Amino acid sequence: MLIAFGHRMPINWLGRRGASFVRSALKRMRSAPIDGSRLGLRLRLNTSGNASERRLLVSPQFFDPEVLEFLKNALKPGFVFVDIGANAGTYSLFVGTRVGPSGTLVAVEPHPVALQRLKFNLSINGLDWAHVAPVALSDSDGSIDLHINPRNIGSTSARENQQSGIESETFSVPCRTLASLAAELNLTHIDAIKADIEGFEDRVLEPFFDQAPRAIWPQILIVEDGRLAWKTDFLSKLAGKGYRIVLETGGNIVLTRPDDQTSARS
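^ that's the sequence the OP posted. Answer follows.
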């Protein structure tokens, strides 16, 4: 009943408030995962410990609708998508089920619990062909400390938890650069990158643009809005690489750059 109520919430301020109430109530009432269909995807979603899963379970109409619509309109055969901070897999599944094995899907997720949920959701959607990278991405290869918010594994970050009153757990995981991962997978182009890594996007993507050949720079870049956390003026640096903002939703920023061949002809 609660979940059905959440699905009926209108896409406006009042609906968002109502959906938030439903998510909070569900979190208190049950802890077992729920199998179902959301956004045309088969999913096993947890009601506690991960805000992203709970949001998709209760109120899929509020799950980045503008960004997903933009991404859907860009999909084509052979599409190459890199999902940095894949969590339980929503973006990876959204792309993978639409482009099929003609495309390339790289899902990066270092948190062991989220990683298992990601693999399960990929499997039940027939996406065993996806490349899953169980590592963190950073500005160098080696290892890095992850800071875990036990109340919300989706806010895992290589940045120390900035939320007062929340005691984070820390453990070390392997890390590598995006450029080295792309080289290992023999990626010759990337159509889109989504990066949602809690304010660490600049530390991963700036080195990528310095190290990777221009031929694999993505045409579409979807980043969590981390302007309060980024160490540099990341958006200005992206503008210097030819990217322009085409969509801002409050939580996400979508940027595109012109195709190099198109630019050369104009």
